[in-house]
Amino acid sequence: MRKSHPLRRVVLATAGTVSAVVLLLSLKPSSDPTSASAAGAAPSAAAAGQESPQGGTGAAGATTVTGDATQTQYGVVQVRLTVANGKITQAEAVQAPKGGTSDQKTALSVPQLNKETVAAQSANIDSVSGATYTSTGYKQSLQSALDKMKEAAASSPSGSSSSSGSSGSSSGSAQAQAKVLTGQVAQTQYGPVQVRITVSGGKITKAEAVQAPSGGTSDQKTALSVPKLNQEAVAAGNATIDSVSGATYTSTGYKQSLQSALDQAGG
Questions:
Q1: Which of 54, 137, 175, 250 could form a disulfide with 72 if both were Cys (CB 3.0 to 4.6 A apart)?
Q2: Cα(157)–Cα(154) distance, rounded to whole angstroms?
Q3: How confident is the model at residue 178 (pLDDT cuts 50, 70, 90)?
């Protein structure tokens, strides 16, 4: 027993060493490929998750267009549009009449006008009953935003990347379509009136008074008449428009200056 005891220790030690080596060899191949594949897959997955939101809808994302501020009898109205893929996706009034009963009328009319704009995709929307002035100012500012949207689309690179033979003529016609013409100053009993129009495709797309009587009661008459005259000028396409009751002098001067602007546009 004493002679066999050291031999047994040697055998056991050798067996233990062999087992440890075998165990290490068996564990090393199984751990390295797993860790390597995990390290390789994680960055690619993260990169895929970051690139798709930025490169897809982000690149062709929505843009905002803000129309001109329109002065009404009760305050300023200004409309801002969100446009995506050539369509109005959102409309909002960044300015609207406020104070007193105007708060109620604005809260009543603006949400409805916003909704109708998105549905109609144009300024041909109905006025809200009880908020005529706000509705009129809204539609005027909306139309100016739509005009800016069209001008931006016409001057965009995608719009000019047509065939090489027609690119020159299309760009030339695009420039010739939109013209801003200012009529002569018409002197009235209460002050000068001067009208500026934007003409595109042979039609008046926008009308505005760059000068109008001011001071005292003239402020109220101008705020009452000019927005209506602007709207009628665009609708009629000429200077044959009705005078606004209570603002006869301003209306007469407006039509005179409007006619002179139309004369510059060739009638």
A1: 137
A2: 8
A3: confident
Distance CA 261, CA 267 (A): 9
Decide: helix, strand or coil at residue 181.
strand
- Residue pointed to by tokens 């509705």: 135
Closest CA to 258 of 206, 200, 216: 206
pLDDT in tens, 84-100: 888 899 999 999 998 88
**For residue range 215-228, what is the model confidence (pLDDT) as tens digits?**
888 888 899 899 99
- Do the Cβ atoms of 110 and 81 come closer than 8 Å? no
Provide the token pair at 52: 């798709």
CA pair distance 51, 243, nearest whole angstrom? 59
Task: Characterise 92 by phi-psi region: left (phi > 0), alpha (psi -120 to 50), beta (else).
Answer: beta
